[in-house]
Write a structure and sequence with these properties.
The protein has about 900 residues and is of the alpha+beta class. It has 24 helices and 34 strands. Strands 1, 2, 3, 4, 5, 6, 7, 8 and 9 form a 9-stranded mixed beta sheet that branches. A 6-stranded antiparallel beta barrel has the order 13-16-20-19-18-21. Strands 29-30-31-32-34-33 form a 6-stranded mixed beta sheet, sandwiched between helices. The longest helix has about 35 residues. About 0% of the residues have low confidence.
Length: about 900
Amino acid sequence: MKNYGVNELRKMFLEFFESKDHLAMKSFSLVPHNDNSLLLINSGMAPLKPYFTGQEIPPRRRVTTCQKCIRTGDIENIGKTARHGTFFEMLGNFSFGDYFKHEAIAWSWEFLTEVVGLDPDRLYPSVYQEDDEAFEIWNKEIGIAPERIFRFGKEDNFWEHGSGPCGPCSEIYYDRGEKYGCGKPGCTVGCDCDRYMEVWNNVFSQFDNDGHGNYSELKQKNIDTGMGLERLAVVVQDVDSIFDVDTIRALRDHVCALAQKEYHVEHDWDVSIRIITDHIRSATFMISDGILPSNEGRGYVLRRIIRRAARHGRLLGIEGEFLANLSRTVIEGSKDGYPELDEKKDFIFNVLTQEENKFNKTIDQGLAILNDLEEKMAQQGTSVLAGEDVFRLYDTYGFPLDLTKEILEEKHFTIDEDGFNAAMTKQRETARKARKATNYMGADITVYESIDPAITSVFVGYDHLRYDSRISALTTDTEVVEALTDGQNGTIIVDETPFYATMGGQEGDKGTITCAGGAFVVEDTIKLKGGKVGHVGRVTGGMFKLGDSVTLQVDEANRTKTCKNHSATHLLQKALREVLGTHVEQQGSLNNADHLRFDFSHFSAMTAEELEAVERIVNEKIAENLPVETKVMSIEEAKKSGAMALFGEKYGDTVRVVCMGDYSKEFCGGTHIGNTGAIAAFKILSESGVAAGVRRIEALTGQGVFDYYNDLEKKLEAAAKTVKATPATLQEKLEHLMAEMKALQSENESLKSKAAKDALGDVMNKVVEIKGVKLLAANVADVDMNGLRELGDQLKEKLGEGVVVLSSVKDGKVNLIAMATDDAMKSGAHAGNLIRGIAALVGGGGGGRPNMAQAGGKNPEGVEKAIAEAAKVLETQIKG
């Protein structure tokens, strides 16, 4: 058997099934499409669910893929053993109602024994205990002796996930030899040791589970095969674990080099080396699919993975940021199968480095919080940190549980792990309850699922705004119907449509649909599964029936404005990359008739100069009247031409590329103007942050810009009129008014200060001495807090050394202040505690520093008592 590498095995598998008339599809994004039941794609079958359920018609009834997958259910145990990782590649061959058990079993055997060259005598199949058909195929057709075929129960050999399609499995195990075994006498297939490794799993999807344990035969029987690419490589290369196969070993060796540590020397080192090796693979692939670190959803999964890897780098003694460096090795080893990694490498490195920087700040904050908690425990005489505090460190400061445990153990403290788990369970339960009601696909259940999957729509709107077609489906909000009548809301689907459906950030068209006896206003156009386009709106007259011939008319003015905004977005993205750098990637957009909104990756707020430069570049390109051309080409041609693709977008074999002269070139299925000059003008309204590492620009084009400036001009004229000026003299007038206002405010403060003094009169005769410290406590009428502070400063100066306490009632509310000089404080006086001691008498509270404090209250009747109490409180403060 030849020692094939990971990249060779991937290619061999896909080419083998292509030879069996399968369509080889590229891996889907790790971000699930229209599937709320998953955070991340975790199996080869997951992105193909619409084909299994019949909601969408597959491009071919036989498909093969190598799907990138992430599973984080047992992330805490990753690294502790070499068996599992969070990231893996799943090889799969799928049949949607085409071939079944005979072919699936025969081809799995043929690939493993004849293509890869595994020894047939070391391969052992297993079947579901009640699946006699599969047993017979293995025994009679493949020629495996009965004693070499293992029957297992439902737990091991029956695949189901709640309600929906399910069925028995047939797995293939490989005997890796005694050196990987446990040495026990009864060691055989099914043993927990590493000798017999499962490499292939054929799932025969032949039943439908109603969710209550009742099974019925599926009309369309399917095949869902899964084989972990890394596991296959372990067997073929005869190595200990996935961390020893060629591509992953190269990464593992890079980790060891950075840490200056050897693998298989210290157990703790090995754990950290495996965690970093696995996690940087997951992080690299997740970021390449447009996932960014955040505190929720898949972004939180990414954040945990990056921070866990970074922390284990610290444990290994790796200094500074190192993850982007490791990511280069991931990309080098995997770019053959996933060229998008190489295309997005600058962005991947930027995100990793930014998150590492944030982690370094977070872990230091967490250590400070933990130190405070340790002091609190010592004061309370407890040695166990509460579970809620442990969870707060974990959840808010990104502090891993084991790190908290480790630090506390060094100081002879422990943690309440049960309390931590309870807090974690509570959070998960809250998140689970917040999920929407979904169907098997994890999508919100809608009426559109009931439409015949064979119905589809052809978009003709690149060349036509008016088109005649035939109605193929009608729905109300709740059901598929034969007709819609006057006044009803509903959706019309036709064979061909000039209406663009909301997609790629461009809002759907508006317009009308008419027939001989009816009129329908299209308020929105939506993309439905299976290539259908839904025209959503209401019947304003007459009636529409299934099969009717209709005329579809797009609102031309609305489309033109939307096109201007969409084309301007392309210019904006290119300008942003010029001004800010090539790390800028589109993270979302919205283009409609009113404005454009563009979300992009960038890690700080843009400066006024940067915004001005971007706006200037876009307007320059508009003025150059660049031709806007759309070319249809193969995806390989498009990428070679330098066209930009969107993160996470799934493209077909051919794509539309929109070129604006030689300036901008992007993959885009949207609609555009014919020349940049048609945009007329571009104006940025705002730039803001919407998520970690994501900024948003909102802008206007064309008439929207002129309307904006017209409105601004009207407001300017109104403002000038208010201050009896013209727009031309407004600034001068405002400067004069501000100077006048400042002078009046100063004069007002002087008058208030004089009024406060007059109201107080000569109070120096009220000074008393408390244990050698002078105290002046007095009440003054109708002075606010600012006036009281100013008066206090003046009296403190007159007093020389001592304590001043003043009160005043203004507008029914009590104001209190206390001030202490340096000598008074040395004697024990504390203004904050003094105020705290008398504030309750006026129905309030307050406090402050030793030298100055203030309080408010709601009880004016208590003022005299508070002033009298000041002497008693001060007496308790002064040292004997």
